[in-house]
Amino acid sequence: MKSLLATALLLTAPIASAQDWAASLRMDAKAMHDDIARNHPGPVDPENPGFAAKNDQALALALQRAGSTTTYAGYLYALIAYAATFDDGHLAAFVPEGVIQPPLVTRWPGFLTTFDTKDDQRVVTRAADAPVPLGARLIACDGKDAAALARDNVGGMGGSGRWNLHVSRVMRGKRLFTDVGNPWIKRPVRCTFDVDGTRRTVDLAWRPIDDKELDRRFAEAFRRKAEPIGMRTLSDGTVWIALSDFDGDPDHPAAKALEPLIAKVQAQRETILAAPRVVLDLRGNNGGDSGWSHRVAEALWGKHAVDAVNLAPTRVDWRASQDNMAQMQSYVRMWSAHADAPPENLAWGKSTVAGMQAAMAKGEPFYMEPGEAKRPTPKPPKTHARIFMVTDSGCASACLDAADLFLALGAIHVGQVTSADTAYMDIRRTMLPSGHMALVVPMKVYRGRQRGSNVPLVPRYVYQADLTDNAALERWIAGLR
């Protein structure tokens, strides 16, 4: 079973001309609602009886907002908020690459905050004339406490929601003190901070910040490392295997790097496992095709050990629809066109298409993918090397599948708490009618998955320092006992 978040075909869209943003919002919100109703597993999922009503309520709010929408920002953030309603990293409305959007002027008050490990919001980057220093803790703005302010202004306007997850707050908290003209939130005016134990109240002076400078400030507020895919040996004998991308497209650079890496691990398996430690580095990995992690695991632990692991859900149900079937057919064509594509991918794609066709012919909402009998996973195989797995807070989708598998095989989890996902997986992308935005909708649902819905993985050893500092991370792992 695959997670193809990063393998969906790239979209191209025409440049939409200036138009009535209220009309665009009505049109795209209705299309979004109908696509979700027609293709998402949720509306017909007996285990999620409130999903269809949530979709209806989200549409009603978007249509209500259309009544006062006059700007592109109003249109944009109404649809982004619609998607956030579902708290699902696999359901999103976004502006795809290649679509020229009307310019948005971004403003900031000269500083940005983000959440620390204790869930306090602290100033993490600032201009020289900012009214508060680095490290200042936000208490409240305009009578609203810091937590509620961030929840309302950022959490409800984030593409995947999930504000209850600490990792979501850490990743998106930096946007609290940015303003792009979103009419559905109230920009802070007067804020109180704790500065070294003393309260300081400041009036915010919002001013424009250009995109290049904003990107630099965002990078300072949330730093993430993605090592190039490959294997290296450290001076102390540690074998470091970087797995920063699981894109499933055979033409993608990740696939071109993973194929020789897996072959190298398989050929040098005995030498690798004789090392003092092995590190599987998942930093920077957003997901893709979970088949890659199985192949890495087979190369390192052996096929017999991987086959003994039973993390599969009790069943996988695919929403049977014409749109979903067309998406799977596109994958079959992609894999058929590449001689190097794993044959199991092609066989799986063809069987899924056939299963959807059969389900639709019977008028059934789901194609139920054949599963295997649930059996206990044996104890992990013993290896001379201690095998560590590093994750960052962006690890999601197929990265989480990899983490589940590596943990079951005995890897020691270190780094940061991961992201999380629901049981709805494998996405399909489509343009919304206006041509301004695209929609991502999952096609299948896991039944009985061991890891719960929107439940992150917590490392055995949490790394509190800068996870982008390779040298410090290497020393820290070498010192773990």
Provide a compact summary of the structure.
The chain is an alpha+beta fold and 481 residues long.
Key terms:
481 residues, alpha+beta, Pdz3 Domain, six-stranded mixed beta sheet, five-stranded antiparallel beta sheet, 14 helices, globular
Note down, in words, how this protein is organized.
The protein contains 14 helices and 19 strands. It has 481 residues and is of the alpha+beta class. It folds into 3 domains: 113 residues, no CATH class; 103 residues, PDZ domain (Pdz3 Domain); 174 residues, 2-enoyl-CoA Hydratase, Chain A, domain 1 (Alpha-Beta Complex), CATH 3.90.226. The protein has a 6-stranded mixed beta sheet with strand order 10-11-12-15-16-19, with helices on one face. Strands 1, 13, 14, 17 and 18 form a 5-stranded antiparallel beta sheet that branches. The chain is globular, with a radius of gyration of 23 Å. The N terminus is likely disordered.
Structural classification: alpha+beta
Give a short account of the largest sheet. 6 strands, mixed
Secondary structure: helix percent? 25-40%
Please state the CA-atom Rg, rounded to the nearest Å.
23 Å
Low-confidence residue ranges: 1-18
How is the secondary structure organized here?
Layout: H1 21-39, H2 51-66, H3 72-84, E1 92-94, E2 107-108, E3 111-115, E4 121-126, E5 137-141, E6 144-145, H4 146-153, H5 166-172, E7 190-195, E8 198-203, E9 207-208, H6 211-221, E10 230-233, E11 239-242, H7 253-267, H8 269-273, E12 277-281, H9 291-301, H10 303-308, E13 315-319, H11 322-336, H12 343-361, E14 366-369, E15 386-391, H13 398-408, E16 412-415, E17 424-431, E18 438-447, E19 461-462, H14 470-478
Parallel strand pairs: 11-12, 12-15, 15-16, 16-19
Antiparallel strand pairs: 1-18, 2-9, 3-4, 5-6, 5-7, 7-8, 10-11, 13-14, 13-18, 17-18
Helix pairs in contact: 1-2, 1-3, 2-3, 7-9, 9-13, 11-12
